[in-house]
């Protein structure tokens, strides 16, 4: 739980840095990184959404499981499976819809340093389809990147492990060694992997976060309230 909280805070800081790079390019000192009200609000919103989502899923699962069990008890197993699948799909669609409606809250908070919830809900009204296309495009892009990077990391990792163990056939024997010896042998490769992961993570975070800042800018520009 503690690691999740720390991870959410680091994610909020990185996301706000990307939002700031798009919305306020003149504030580029310290790589756009800050720890201020915007980061705190994004962090609190992230934690609040996570807790709310867990409670909502648990609350929705109780009647769904009850209905599914009742239908299964009367020997309608096919209907029970169908009800369970449809219930999960409806719950997932509802969750995605809520997240899309709140997807540009972070850029709004970075722009003026204030907490926004009802404002972002009003601003995204009628634009869920466009925001969904942004999310779908990001999903496809990240899947492609994950496959490419994953293949490269897997190939490099296997090559390093093979060299460290004295061949692929000796991997089983290698991992039966004392933990300290294994860690000492793998330390150089892990350090290199960590150093390479830093710029890659930064690029991935920019790819994930920047489109939402652009979406916010476009929505504000098309909003009568602007």
List its salient traits.
226 residues, mainly alpha
Give a written overview of the molecule:
By secondary structure, the protein is mainly alpha-helical. The chain has 8 helices and no strands. The longest helix is centred in the C-terminal third of the chain and has 43 residues, at 179-221. It is flat. The two termini are 40 Å apart. The model has no long low-confidence stretch (mean pLDDT 85).
Secondary structure blueprint with pairings:
Elements: H1 2-23, H2 37-73, H3 77-101, H4 105-112, H5 118-123, H6 128-165, H7 171-174, H8 179-221
What pattern of helices and strands is seen along the backbone?
HHHHHHHH
Distance between the termini: 40 Å
Query: What's the rounded overall pLDDT mean?
Result: 85
Number of strands: 0
Gross morphology? flat
Q: How large a portion of the residues is in β-strands, by DSSP E?
A: under 5%
Largest sheet: none
| Tally of separate helices | 8
Gyration radius over CA: 23 Å
Share in helix:
over 70%
Which spans have pLDDT < 50 for at least 5 consecutive residues? Answer: none
Structural class: mainly alpha
Short description:
With 226 residues, this protein is mainly alpha-helical. It contains eight helices and no strands.
């Amino acid at each position: 739980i503690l690691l999740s909280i720390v991870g959410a805070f680091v994610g909020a800081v990185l996301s706000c840095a990307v939002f700031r790079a798009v919305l306020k390019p003149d504030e580029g000192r310290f790589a756009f990184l800050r720890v201020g009200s915007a980061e705190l609000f994004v962090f609190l919103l992230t934690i609040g959404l996570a807790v709310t989502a867990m409670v909502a899923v648990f609350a929705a699962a109780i009647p769904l499981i009850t209905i599914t069990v009742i239908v299964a008890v009367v020997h309608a197993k096919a209907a029970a499976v169908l009800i369970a699948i449809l219930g999960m799909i409806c719950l997932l669609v509802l969750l995605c819809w809520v997240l899309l409606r709140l997807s540009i809250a972070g850029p709004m908070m970075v722009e003026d340093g204030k907490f926004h919830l009802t404002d972002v809900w009003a601003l995204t009204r009628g634009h869920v389809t466009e925001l969904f296309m942004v999310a779908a495009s990001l999903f496809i892009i990240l899947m492609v990147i994950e496959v490419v990077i994953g293949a490269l990391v897997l190939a490099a990792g296997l090559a390093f492990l093979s060299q460290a163990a004295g061949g692929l056939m000796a991997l089983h024997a290698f991992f039966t060694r004392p933990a300290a010896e294994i860690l000492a042998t793998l330390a150089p490769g892990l350090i290199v992997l960590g150093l390479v992961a830093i710029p890659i993570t930064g690029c991935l975070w920019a790819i994930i976060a920047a489109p939402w800042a652009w979406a916010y800018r476009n929505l504000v520009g098309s909003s009568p309230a602007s």
